[in-house]
Amino acid sequence: MLVLVGSLLVLSCVLGGYVLSHGHILALWQPSELMIIGGGAMGAFLSANPLKIVKGALHNIVALFKGPKYRKQDYVDLLALLYDIFGVMRKQGLLGLESHIEDPQSSPVFSAYPRLVKEHHLIEFTTDCLRLMVGGNMNPHELEQLLEVELETHQHEAEAPALAVMKLADALPGFGIVAAVLGIVTTMSQLGGDTSQIGEHIAGALVGTFLGILLCYGFVGPLGAAMENRVQEDGRAFECVKVALLACLRGYNPKVAVEFARKTLSPQARPNFQDFEAHLKDSARAGASV
Questions:
Q1: Which end of the chain is more exposed for a tag (fewer CB within 10 A), N or C?
Q2: Measuring CA to CA, how many Å separate 65 from each of 117, 267, 268, 270?
Q3: What is the rounded distance in angstroms from the CA atom of residue 183 to the CA atom of residue 173?
Q4: What are the coiled-coil residue ranges (predicted)?
Q5: 202 lies in which domain range?
């Protein structure tokens, strides 16, 4: 939502200042310049990126208007899921997790959190880590190195659409110059004719430069930065899982391991300890009633 508010603020301030300085809004309406800049930039974007990144960019732009992917309640559920997994490990050992990690959809541990089960990448990351713990016979240091590599790969892939949009923003001033140069070419062909027509062509050429710079720094660039920030924030859920599993592997009890994980979350989204305790008590009462 802040992306929309910020874009409207940029547009209103730029156009408002232009009008206050006795400018005419209709003079900025240059469809040919918009076609050159917008069409050229989109063509370059499609040429530079595979279809996967193009689709990812469109998906991420839409997601910006839906708010954060993981909210406080989602993190409460994630911490509770990790706590339940550690409980199974303490009662049944690592081998007791095999049936749960092979089919999370039908596992009573995972299916107790339907919102998280739908997050396939997060669940796949969690089950892969648990699978390494069950069958890999790895010490915490070895597992941490492996998880760092996987998280880095995942983060790089998740940030690719945002980086592509930011590169698109960098190209827009160049296409603005292209539009301006073509406008000057048109102007030169009109020399010796009606001076009013020459003035209109020069104005159109300057509008091309203006639009390229405005689109870059006022809209597309901030949009790419917002996409990157969202990806980094969403990645905290994976970091949370990694820290919790490593703490458990090092021998900490479930509550302490989950507390390690809780500390990795940003203050805005981090559930406090009382929220988590209340959730556990509610779950225990629900289990007792069943």
A1: C
A2: 23, 22, 18, 21
A3: 15
A4: none
A5: 35-290
The pLDDT of residue 265: 86
pLDDT score recorded for residue 283: 59
In this model, does residue 215 exceed pLDDT 90? yes
DSSP letters, 177-228, are HHHHHHHHHHHHHTTTS-HHHHHHHHHHHHHHHHHHHHIIIIIIHHHHHHHH
Number of domains present in the structure of the chain = 1
pLDDT of residue 219: 94
Residue 234 Cα distances to 121, 167, 267, 277, angstroms: 11, 22, 14, 24
Residues 61 and 261: their CA atoms lie apart, in Å, by 29
Gap between the Cα atoms of 107 and 85, Å rounded: 11
Going by C-alpha positions, the residue among 65, 52, 232, 242 that lies closest to residue 159 is: 232
The whole-number pLDDT of residue 40 equals 94
Q: What's the CA gap between 247 and 190, in Å, rounded?
A: 75
**pTM, 2 dp:** 0.83
Is residue 14 in a domain?
no
Pairwise CA distance, residues 56 & 210, whole Å: 29
Burial of 255 (0-12, 13-18, 19+ CB in 10 A): middle
Give φ, ψ of 158 to 5 degrees. Answer: -70, -30
| Three-class DSSP category at 57 | helix
